[in-house]
Amino acid sequence: MSGLEPVVALALACNVFQVIGVARETIHIVKQVYRYGDLDPALTDHATRLDDLSKQIQTAMMPTTPAAATTTATPMMTASTTARGAAQGAAQQGAAQPRPTVRDTQLLGLANRCLKAARALREEVKFLKDPATKSRLVVVLKSATTVWRQRRLDKLGKDMLDAEQLLQTGLLARIFEQIEKADGGLEKLDSDLRSFVDENRAGRSEVAELVRAEAAQTRKNVTIQIKGGIHAVKRHTTQDTARAETSLKKHITEAARSADEREQDARLEARRERLLRSLKFDRMNERRNMVEKSHGKTYQWVLRDGSDAGELADVAESPKADADYPWDSFSDWLRSTEPEYWISGKPGSGTTTLVKYLLGHPQTRRFLELWSPGAVLVSHFFWRPGTQMQQSIRGLFCSLLHQLLEEDKASLDRILSSSINASHKDMETDWSNQELQSTLLDVMAHYPRSMALFLDGLDEVLRTEGTLALLNVVDTLKRPQGLHGKVKLCLGARREPLIEEKLRSCPQLRLEHLSYNDLRRYAEDTIIIPPQYPIFISPGSKLYARNAKGHHVFFSFEKPPNPCEIRDWLVTELVGRADGVFLWLRLTAKIVMEALHASETVTDLQCRVDSLPSGLIELYEDMWARANVDSERPEHQERAALYFHLAINQIDNDRLGLTIATTTGMANRIRYCDPYKPGFAASLVESCKAKMRDIEIRCAGLLRINPIPERSNVSLLQPWYGKEYCDLIPYAEEDIDMDPPPFEFVHRTARDFLTDTEEGSRILRKYKISEWHLRQRFAAARLACCRLLRIAPTVKYFHRESVKWTTSPEEYSSLSLRLAEITSLLDLLPEGDEENAIGKCDELLQFCEQLFESGQLFRDLRLPGDGDNFQGEGPESDDLRTWYEVVVKREHEFLLEAASINLNIWPFICAKVQSLELDKQTLSELLLHVCTIAIEYQDDYFWLQDQWEGLRSMREERKRGSHHLGIDSRLKLARLLLKRGACPSLKGPRRTGILDRHIGTDLVYVLETPLKGLISSVWRLDRDTTKMDSNLARHFIDLIRLLMSNGANPNGEEFRVTYQVEDGHLFERPLYFVDGPRKTSMQFVQAYPLSVILARMLQSWKDRFPGIDTFLEAEDTIQDGARLGRLILMLHFGGTPARMCIVEAEEELEEELLWVAREAKGILQAEDRGSYGVPVPPKIQQGLSRALERRHPEGVEASQTSQWYVEVYLRAGMTSMYWGDLEGGTVVISSALLGN
Fold first, then answer.
1. I want to staple 1050 with a disulfide (CB 3.0 to 4.6 A). Which of 779, 788, 1063, 1090 is the partner?
2. Which one, of 697, 556, 535, lies nearest residue 600 by Cα?
3. Residue 228: how many CB atoms within 10 A of its CB?
């Protein structure tokens, strides 16, 4: 580095002085943080200032030319001064640079020390401001790490003090030297000081004495110079501060605007994801994903340029591709304005495979670009063997909408802004068919790009909807709102009469007429003569055949064929017989290859080929007959029929569960086994492999076994009993959205053979197990899996402000799901076998209890407080409870948990109560659960029965009555509990909400009596008058009367009812919180005495059901229902800002709020209160808004209202075991019911 120019040295010294000052102040603030535990907002500013000053010091120290060096800007110098110094330095500097002086070296050393100190302090500030440190600051301040950091701060403070003292001395000496060397500088000094300069130049040793003798004079001159410098610096600093203040204000304004924009972007993205999620149904892409990739080098002809005949040489060589079978060039169609193209073919000819090939080929998109640059390509595959959504027009609407909106955010935002309803949809069941169709047409009409729609399997549409309805939809999609030329449709369908009538005039191809060369290529790649195959033709026998060119040849004992000739003969024969049906060729090629490996003679091989059926149905019959010709054991065919039944009904299960369910006694063996027994885990793996082999053999090739998918991510499944069970995990995993099932039909025609032909029906009749008993086996299998394996959440993000994680859809360890499955069995007991079936269900419930008591099934999970360790290390321990806090079990905890889930297992609970000695608290808590009827649970769990087609009608029939509520069993159990000593007036903890079975939500409890729990349940059920009949009402009255006759009093509790302003009307609506109400709305919660609500409900039943005894006249404790309610809460969400006000009892209400109370009384007494609405005048609405604003003028962002929810819950008598842990953070709240 060259010697420092005067101006550069002065700038560097000034910067070092500033670093020292800021550093010492920062050290002081950090020490205060460690002492008191409160973060100072100034820390961030100090860290930024230190960073800026460090950069300036580094710039001043860079080895640059003097001119460059002197241009370093500092807060201590004006720009003009710096420029003059740079110019003078450049003029005076020669080619050779002087060496740095001692004082230069000293000054640079001090600068380096300041840089190191600044780095250390910036790291300290970063450590304190880190979110992970902030969230657990109290713990951090007590750790050993803090002691080390405080010692480091003390050392930094001492270093800065020493540097300041040394720099002051060095700087004064440096200023003296600059004055000495400056032109004209000596004339300003007196004679004594000039003498000192002369002596100093001569190097005399008496300099020290001279300095002491002239100290006073030196200080005087230095003071004058410093004052002048200070004045200039102050002037510069004032200007610089003004500029910095202006810049800072601008930066703060932009930062605030940026934060608002980020918040708005986050909310918008959440709304986008919610809308897209509502359109995506289960297994939406399954059909496309399970279609096998086309064989190598097949279908290449379809995308070749039709304008060049030479490109189609391979097609022209086919004997089928002649003038009798013309086809329209697909590549020409892609580039043209023609709207439709029809791909047809025989069953099994490969049309679906061709459509998938076209969708994935880059040439398809290149041709579409010539038609319309930027065109978007979307698809949908109908599938008859699939779910209802996979077969339906509704599924088509959802699939196309999801793809189009996902591809274009502008269209997605337009739908969100133009449709209020679209913003509040969570799943596909929230959409009506009409909404889906109109939304799809609207999106297509306004879409910024052209669209190419590939729709396959039009003939596989749901039978109840029909092909004609689908073809009419296709016509509508072709020209949305008359916008011609914007949409192309490639349609894959068989040549059924209706389809042919509609599509005969559009461009098309028939695949079976054009696939000869593709079939031959597949056959040549598949049929390989084994090296050891014996070529032998009996004497006197002749084999007549055709070769690849169609010429007839013959072989004999004297003229045997070589392996190439045998292969050529087999390929030619099979391809010719296939008649364009690829599936027929694939199945027969497999048969022939098995015969070759079995060393069949050429003569026998010829007989086998000649006897092959020409059609697929006949081929399936032949395959079944050949597979069972040697089987004398009927259980083999029974097992095959069972596997066919599972494939037809698409019973979702993994390979392990399937193996356990279809192997007699295996679930019980796992239940009672010693899991640590050597070799037990390996035997289970071998059982799974053997089951897959058995399916393949017994089903004669009509079912194919899918390989276990390779997974790139870590499995969520983990063993309970050691690492030897890890080999079992791949057999227990299944992602129903991404993975193919363990086995499936080789083709839709194989399923049709079993369901639509007499021979197929005869095969299926060999299936001896009833559907109910098979479902019971699968329920037992899932419990057995729970004993072997567990599933754990994977932490994505964890700190006190937010907790997010994911779980597997199966939730192996969920007690709620397992009990729901057993409940669905109890609801649908097989006629004539009820007693045996109930015994099976009792065994399952006892298995559940065993797993619950051993900690392998549980209801409530939460992450431990030490989330950082969980995220860093992962759940590697064999004991799941190392990583999860499980609710501490009380005595008889399983009984209470089973009752609280509120499913129809009351006979089992009743039997347990009879066999146990229970304390009063347990009996009273059970009574509360008996009287709480969670209607939402009942409807939500019926999906478990939808997988079993044979039981759906029975389920719907029983769902219409009171059977699924278990009222008779509840009454019987309530009498038993009261007889044993349950207290009907004792308040107990009851869960509120419908989502609390899911991991990731706080479980919200409310303390209430059984009578209030019963009335709350019935009030919600009675809101929909179609769900209540006279028989159900009588049962409820009996239960209410039973409670009151044993001491329950309806006058001791409040009952909350919510009213909502919606579309200009006031309605009664339940108020659920899912991190806040879902809709933009103004809501008012009124509190009534419980007796008022009971009187209103009984009077309504008396009016609706003549002859019913409501005991109103005989009961003095029931008050008149004409009282006004008391307003306790007002809310307004969806606006900016959101507002929520708790109204105190003594508070004086505005006239508009009194209007709500009066009208609410009328709604309360209305016959159809669920749909009855009162118009709200505009002036009243404005007054209501003003009343809210007066009580909560500042409002709050809707995303920051979690703590408000907690306060409201607490005021309503609710609580959660988790709220105390989240001090000042966001509470993860379940969908808790606040107002009925």
1. 1090
2. 535
3. 10
Residue 887 DSSP label: P
**pLDDT tens, residue by residue, 549-579:** 666 777 776 788 888 888 888 999 899 888 8
Pair 1160, 1125: CB distance under 8 Å:
yes
* Cβ atoms within 10 Å, residue 1167: 10
Gap between the Cα atoms of 232 and 853, Å rounded? 82
Name the residue with tokens 């590549």.
331
Query: C-alpha distances in angstroms, 768 versus 634, 639, 757, 784?
Result: 11, 9, 20, 24
Helix 102-129 with 144-181: angle, nearest 10 deg: 150
Q: Where are the beta strands (DSSP E) in 463-580?
A: 487-492, 508-510, 542-546, 552-556
Question: Does residue 39 contact residue 172 with C-beta atoms inside 8 Å?
Answer: no
Strand order of the β-sheet with 340-344 is 376-381, 451-456, 487-492, 340-344, 508-510
Tens of pLDDT, residue by residue over 97-133, are 455 666 677 767 777 777 777 777 777 777 776 665 5
Give the whole-angstrom CA distance, residue 634 versus residue 116.
86
Report the alpha-carbon distance of residue 738 to residue 282 in Å, rounded: 10
**Cβ–Cβ under 8 Å, residues 993 and 1233:** yes
pLDDT in tens, 349-360: 999 999 999 999
Beta strands 508-510; 340-344: pairing state: parallel
DSSP character at residue 1061: E
Q: Greatest CA separation found in the chain?
A: 142
Spell out the alpha helix ranges (H) of 903-986.
906-915, 920-931, 935-940, 952-959, 967-980
**Residue 35 predicted with pLDDT over 60:** yes
| Cβ neighbour number for residue 1142 with a 10 Å cutoff | 16
Q: By the 8 A CB rule, do 541 and 600 touch?
A: no
- Token output for 796: 């994505």
- What is the tens place of the pLDDT at every residue in 976-1006? 999 999 999 888 877 765 433 333 344 567 7
Which residue's structure tokens are 């230069």?
A: 104
- Three-state DSSP class for 872? helix
Q: 1104 with 1029: CB under 8 angstroms?
A: no
Backbone angles phi, psi at 305, to 5 degrees: -65, 115
What sign does the CA torsion over 1100, 1105, 1111, 1112 have?
Answer: positive
- The CA-atom distances, in angstroms, between 1040 and each of 267, 813, 1021, 1050, 1114 are 46, 36, 15, 10, 14
- Can you read off the two tokens belonging to residue 324? 């009798």
Confirm if 912 and 943 have CB atoms less than 8 A apart: no
Q: Is 56 helix (H, G, I), strand (E, B) or coil?
A: helix
Q: pLDDT tens-digit profile of 998-1011?
A: 333 445 677 789 99
Return d(Cα 808, Cα 715) in angstroms, integer.
10
> Tokens in use for 672?
């009672």
Task: Return d(Cα 495, Cα 490) in angstroms, integer.
Answer: 15
Within 13 Å and on the Cβ side, how many CA atoms surround 605? Answer: 31
Question: Do the beta carbons of residue 114 and residue 20 sit within 8 Å?
Answer: yes
The single residue listed with the structure tokens 């579309």 is 1063
CA 434 to CA 213: how far, in whole Å?
104
Handedness of CA 946, 948, 953, 958 (dihedral sign): negative
Rounded CA separation 355/293 (Å) = 11
Integer Cα distance of 615 and 584 in angstroms:
8
Contact 500, 466 (CB under 8 A): no
For the chain, give the mean pLDDT. Answer: 76
Whole-angstrom distance, CA of residue 461 vs CA of residue 384:
7
In angstroms, the CA 924 to CA 1187 distance is: 43
* pLDDT of residue 94 exceeding 60: no
Distance between CA atoms of residues 469 and 487, nearest Å? 20
